[in-house]
Amino acid sequence: MGRVGFAHVVAACAVLLAACGGGPGAGAPRDASIDEFCEAKGWMVAEGMDRFFESGLPSDDELVDLVHEWGDELARTGTPDNMSAEARAGFEKLVGRIDGLESGDVDEGSFNWDDGAWEGEEEKSFANYVTNTCP
């Protein structure tokens, strides 16, 4: 994966967070502050850049490990109480999808999530919430 590929993966993950119930996200707190939520949203980009900037591009396994840690951070932080039920369902789907990610899902710098499962109303509601809430 080249430098551009890693940037695409980081951007794709940020977009997926902005674009995405049950599973690991279902038990996430519902009382996070907006600042805590937005910080968790950006955790992977900041952590990934810190972790891999000096050592070079991550392997697929390292990237998946980073994404899993991001999912854990999202689930630990949870969502603000002003998030709609529909947006919360999109959040839970994202955290579940992250939890199920495997190294083989990384393909040429992006995730093989082209199955249309990210285009439902819950995912759009979550994307709108993130876009309108976080800088």
From TrEMBL:
<keyword id="KW-0732">Signal</keyword>
<feature type="signal peptide">
    <location>
        <begin position="1"/>
        <end position="18"/>
    </location>
</feature>
<protein>
    <recommendedName>
        <fullName>DUF732 domain-containing protein</fullName>
    </recommendedName>
</protein>
